[in-house]
Amino acid sequence: MSGSIHDSSPPRAGALHRFTPDPDSTLAALRDDRPGLVAPYLAALPGARAAVLGRLWGALAREPIPGVTGREVHGGRLTVTVAGHRLTGPADAAEPYAPAPDGLTVGGYTDPAALVRGVLHQERFAVEVDNSVANLALARANASPASTSDLASTEQSVVDGHPLHPCCRTRLGMSTAEVLAYAPEHRPVVHLRLVDVPPDRWHGDAPPRLVVHPWQYAHVLDAYPWLTPAGTLPARPLMSLRTLAVPGYHLKTAVDVQMTSAVRTVSPAAVHNGPVVSALLAHLAHGTGLEVLREDRAGAVLVDGAPSRSLAYVRRLAPALAPGETAVPLAGLGGAPDAADPEKFFAALARVFLPPLLTLLARGAALEAHGQNTLIVLRDGRPARLLYRDVGGVRISPARLRAHGVDPPPVRGDLVTDNPDQLRDKLFAAALSGVVAEQVAAFGRVHGIAPERLWARVAAVTNDQSIFRASLPVKATTAMRLAADPLTDVWASLPNPLAGMR
Prior knowledge:
Blueprint (H helix, E strand, L loop, with lengths): L22 H11 L4 H25 L5 E7 L2 E6 L2 E6 L21 H9 L2 H19 L9 H6 L14 E2 L3 H7 L7 E7 L5 E3 L4 E4 L1 H6 L8 E10 L5 E4 L2 E5 L1 E5 L2 E3 L3 H18 L4 E3 L2 E9 L2 E12 L7 E5 L12 H22 L1 E2 L7 E6 L2 E7 L6 E2 L1 H6 L16 H28 L3 H9 L11 E5 L1 H6 L8 E5 L7
Helix pairs in contact: 1-2, 2-4, 3-4, 9-11, 11-12
């Protein structure tokens, strides 16, 4: 994701965040405050270490990580040469979306943070990985199935976070108690704070009242005594911890906490672009079977004359569902374990998912349609239509828009490009290397369907030749974390299972 347009910012330089719980300090906090979670947490730790190590191993296998000078596979074993070390481990554990085997060992390491310290010599990244392991083990220890079929409950049942990122559960800046209080996988009700803002210190089209996450209220707002408390609002966090559901709306708040790759603030560009770009996308998507969840208002506090990314929010319309419909983020679909005919379900999913995205690409908008911001609407248990939310990651082509009779809107940041490779990579990395590849792996794992049969179902839904090229892009999340600018997109490539099907 690109920080100049996103509701995020680069991690702070210099000292690490005040709260960086690792597995040991998390255990100590549980012994003091949540003793009932101690045994489940200890039981979950080995699997969490293996899961994060598997993500790191996959990154070393495919990403342009500094110091990697060689990769070779023999007899099912992969050897990666990095910084003079030869690391050997199971080749299949490095495949995208592969479940980590119990006791996964890479180059003698079972602890991913120890590998980072001993081989990559990146202490900051090691702290992030340690935090990810601790929070993933905590999530698994406290997991429970969705209690209802409503969207918030479904999203809160997604436990493991980003499927390829070693920092899948990193929350640098939050104590263990705060993770339990605010993270969606722990199913809290969060009381948002409402704060009145002097009109002359307000920016945006919303009334001058800021919606503040309680973590932000406790840690940031003391510096702004001229903001006036105006009540609270109960809400339920969605998959993105700082985006919360209230009746009729989803509220994206600023939280100065590093989650996966970025500190999740709300940029001035996001405040401006949300309503403008979501209106454009809704227009382009008309008649495609894809509905864009509009961002209808946004605002930020002016600090020293400029909108503050730490004091901002965006409001988005919640999905409107008919009787018999449920909405599920694609990251939470999990291989549709209850499908009576899973291959038929997958074929319907492919028909609903891919053609609208390719149509929008042709019309001038490349959506970053990954599993968190793309939802499938099930009607009586069958894929029926698609929902898309969060416009920060899109790319817009003025030339393609004009060719379809649409004037490009005034946007800020780096959303705009006419480069066909950038447009295609933005969509394909999220939709094909991301959603489709993850669902193929999940359906194969749950139902025993051969991957080539599922990819053939994908090939059947479109005649767009661009999806049949030899390789697919995938975001290199670990290489990005190790780069000087961790929010500049870095890409790796994967063999395309669709190649040769047309």
